[in-house]
Amino acid sequence: MVRIIIEVLLALALIGSGTFGFMQYKSVGASSSQVSELEDKTAKTEKKLEAVEEELKQAKEEVEAAEPLKSKAQELEAVKTAFSGGEILKDLEATYSKQKGLSTERQLGMAAVRQLTLGNKDPSTIEAYRKTLEMADWKSRSKAVCAAQYALAAAGEKIKVMSECADGDAPKDAHAAAGKDDGHGKADGHGKAGAKDAHAAPHWDYEGPMGPENWGKEFPTCAKGKSQSPLDIKGPFEKVKVSVAPEYKNGQLKILNNGHTIQVNVEPGSKLRIDGLVYDLLQFHFHKPSEELVDGKPAAMVIHFVHKNAAGQLAVIGVLLKEGNENPGIKTLWEHLPAKEGPEVAPDKVLFNPSNLMPREMDFYSYEGSLTTPPCTEKVKFFILKSQVNIAREQVGAFPFKKNARPVQPLNDRVIQTN
C-alpha cells in the first residue's frame, strides 16, 4: 500500500513538474515576442529621430545662409532710403549734363542711381540701362553688360540674361547678351565676346571656326531662320508706295572700334520717318565689302544706319559705297578712326551729321530681313538705297578690317519691294 501511495505521489510530482515547465516555456515565448516588437519599434523610432535630426540640420543651415542675405537686404534698404529724396540724382544729372560723353561705367552708375531713386520700373531707369548696353562691349565691359541685363530682367523687360553672367564670364553670344537689338545683334552693333581665356574664347567671327558658315552652331536662328539678311537684290520687284525720310542732326562724334566694325553712336534727336512712323537713329557702322549684292555684284562697302521705334521695331537703311572720289564725311570719321578695338572715343569739339553720308535721292529696295550678325534675329525692315555714294580707294584701304561681311542668304518666299 505504501508502495502504491509513493508511486502515485511520484506520478503527481512528474505531472506537476511537466506542467510548470510547459507554463514557463509559454511565458518565455511570449516575452521573446514582446522583445522583438520592442526592438522593431525602437528601430523605427531611431529612423524617425535620424530624419528629424537631418531636418533640423538643414533648417539650421538655411537659417545660417539667410543671415548674410538679411544683412544685405538691410544694407540695400538703407541705401535706397538715402537716395529716396532725389537730391543725389539731381546733382549727378546736373554734373553729367555738362560732359560731352559718359563712359560705360558712369552710364551704368547713372542707371543705378535712377533705380535706387525712382525704382526699376521707371522709364528713365530702363532707358539708362539700355543705354549702358548700347555703349558696352563684352571684351572690356562684361561686368557692366551683366549688371544692365540683370536690372532689365528684374524690371520685367524681355531680355535673356546669359548664363555666363552668373559664372562671372562673358557669353559666347555677345549680341544676344546685350539685350537690345539694333539691326546687327546688339545695341552697339558688334560686341565681341570674352571668356575665361580671352585668347581662346569661342565667339562669332567672319572667318575661321566661328565664321558665318558655323554661326548656326551657337546661334540657331542664323541657320534655321527663313528671313535672313543680307540678300542678293534682283528682280522681279514688287512696287510699293512707302515714304522714307531721314531727319538727322549734328551731334558730338562718338566713334569706336568694337572688334567687328567701326561704329558711330548717335546722340538722341536724329530720326527716320517711315510713312510718318518715327524711328530713332541709334548708330551706324560699316561693312567691307557690302553685305548686300545688287544683281550679284557687291559694292566696295556699305553703311548700315540702325533705327528703332517706340514699339521696339528695327529699321536699317543701307547706303552702298562705290569706289570713286574722296568722301568728305568719311574723311572726317577716318581722321578719328580707332585702329584697334577699344572703348568709345569722343574727340573734343568734333561734331558730325549722319546726313553727310546720305545720297540726295531716297529711292530704295526694301525687304523684311534679320540682324546680319548673331543672333540673327528676324523681323528687321531693310531699305537699301539705289543711289550709291562715292568713297576713295584709299579710304576703303584705311578701313581696319579686311572683310566683315556676311554672305547673302536665301530669299525663300520673300518678295523684294521697290518704290
What can you tell me about this protein's structure?
With 419 residues, this protein is of the alpha+beta class. It has two domains: 87-210, no CATH class; 227-418, Alpha carbonic anhydrase (Carbonic Anhydrase II, Roll). It has helices spanning 2-83, 87-96, 104-118, 123-135, 138-154, 163-167, 174-178, 215-218, 220-224, 328-334, 393-398; strands at 232-233, 238-239, 244-247, 251-252, 255-257, 262-265, 271-274, 277-287, 293-294, 297-298, 301-309, 314-323, 351-352, 364-370, 378-385, 389-391, 417-418. The strands form three sheets. Strands 2, 3, 5, 6, 7, 8, 11, 12, 14, 15, 16 and 17 form a twelve-stranded mixed beta sheet that branches. A hairpin with a 2-residue loop joins strand 7 (271-274) and strand 8 (277-287). Helix 2 (87-96) packs antiparallel against helix 3 and helix 3 runs antiparallel to helix 4 (123-135). It is elongated. The model is unreliable at 167-202 (pLDDT under 50).
What gross morphology would you assign? elongated
Beta-strand proportion? 15-25%
Spatial gap, N to C terminus: 147 Å
Order of helices and strands: HHHHHHHHHEEEEEEEEEEEEHEEEEHE
- Please write the CATH class name of the largest domain: Alpha Beta
Cα radius of gyration in angstroms: 37 Å
Name the CATH homologous superfamily of the largest domain: Alpha carbonic anhydrase
Mean pLDDT: 81
Q: Which structural category fits the helices and strands?
A: alpha+beta
- Give the helix tally: 11
Largest sheet: 12 strands, mixed
As for the CATH topology of the largest domain, it is Carbonic Anhydrase II
